[in-house]
Amino acid sequence: MEDSDRADRVAVEQEIRRLYDEATALVADTWPSPDTMDWGTGCGDYADGTPSESWNIFNQYKGPTKSSAEETAERVAKMWTDYGFPTKVVEDDKIYPPRKVVSYPPYLTGVREDGFAIVFTIGENYADFSGYSRCAPIDPDDPVLPKNW
Q1: What angle do CA 130, 134, 136 make, to 5 degrees?
Q2: H/E run at residue 59
Q3: pTM of the model
Q4: DSSP-assigned letter for residue 103
Q5: pLDDT (tens digit, 9 = 90+) per residue, 39-96?
Q6: Contact 138, 125 (CB under 8 A)
Q7: Can you say how many angstroms the Cα of residue 61 is from the centroid of all Cα atoms in its chain?
Q8: For residue 126, what are the β-bridge partners?
Q9: At what angle do helices 69-82 and 3-27 cross, to 10 degrees?
Q10: Largest CA distance in the chain
Q11: 3-state helix, strand, coil in the chain (%, to 5)
Q12: Strand partners of residue 132
């Protein structure tokens, strides 16, 4: 594995972190520490057998929001569309509290072929964010690799 692979890992993590930071800032100035924020499996291996993984984040906010759910969701959808992730606000009233949902790829369709997906939901006194980066080569120093046992 080349040093450029590590740069790819940094880039894909930073992309999700930026999307997370910008979306969550529209909701409230302070969020709790993320429930999940780590590298995870599920990407499979590259053609040469190199394992890959995705950087994931999930967090929930409970409390008053800066703007209405509709306004915040529309702003997130516009921001993501401007970044090249075309999306629109949909409503899910089967979850509680009922929420406006912004998702790329479209809500409930899974992840892109490269592992990427972002989902933002907001309702009354509630919001959450889930992000999955593009797949990247596993860290060669990762203790899960047999060569590092």
Answers
A1: 125
A2: strand 52-62
A3: 0.89
A4: E
A5: 988 788 887 888 888 999 999 999 999 999 999 999 999 999 999 999 999 999 998 8
A6: no
A7: 15
A8: 62, 123
A9: 150
A10: 52
A11: 30, 30, 40
A12: 56, 117
- Residue among 141, 121, 137 at smallest CA distance from 129: 121
- The runs of H, that is alpha helices, within 28-138 are 69-82
16: buried, middle or exposed (CB in 10 Å: 19+, 13-18, 0-12)? buried
Both structure tokens of 27: 């909701």
Distances (CA, A) of 129 to 16, 58, 93, 145: 10, 6, 17, 30
One-letter identity of residue 58: F
- Residue in this structure with the two tokens 């800032």, named with its chain if needed: 25
Q: Give the β-pairing of 136-137 and 36-40.
A: unpaired
